[in-house]
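Appendix B. Chain record.
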Amino acid sequence: MRVTILVDNKASGKLVPEHGFSAWIEAAGRQILFDTGQGPALAENAERLSIDVRRADDLVLSHGHYDHTGGVPWVLERAPDIHVYCHPASVSGRFAVRNGAPKPISMPKAASAALGSVRPERMHWAEFPLEIAPGIGITGAIPRVTDYEDTGGPFFLDAAGKRPDPIDDDLALWMRTEKGLVVVVGCSHAGLVNTLKTAVRLSGTSHIHAVIGGLHLLEASWTRIARTARALRAFSPDTIIPCHCTGERALESLRNAFGARVAPGSIGAVFELGDMKVAGC
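Structure tokens predicted for this chain:
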């Protein structure tokens, strides 16, 4: 299995950084694009990294924020036969409201319109768990069971900030490998620990080989960061690859707790992970 980061807040060389996330996943003979960033960086970085999205079998959208879905029209134009997976609520209107000032953070209109053009047999509304291939699954909506995890910011369904947004559309991708479970997340708005608990339950695999993506601990309290690190010890992941919205404080805390097992991601980083485990799926 190979995971290449296409969009992230950090980049090196001639690659283009962007506030957002996207990863190209090659596993079990499939090419999966997970999230699309805001759009411009995806096209530029895919070309410079020699990744042809026309070969993609699946597009998985972790949730309906602009920095994960802006590249949807570009992808669907190049891969019109791709299978698309996202939660029905991903097309909802939403805002971040700070100090009374609302900022629209919904999926762009062009992206939601592009989703509307996908043929019904290739448009999969992943409200509930499903497997897209043997040993590869999508969590669907993630149950919130911890008492210390929240969505990670001042997110609302209205510009007035009266209706909190639970971000019910947040989902993750999981893959069984010979070395354990690989979990790919966009922002972990459901909470990283909630997400891993769900992936373990659905996959039937208790050991976490790797977790990669945005952990959305940028605005988290020290208490939440500490409790997250403590809970992660119980999973004992082989590799943690924080990206995008994780935050430097949380990254430092994870490094202190897990040492060399933490490998921060950036655009162009390629991670060779465990071989896919298909037998018995």
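Further analysis of this model is presented in Appendix C.
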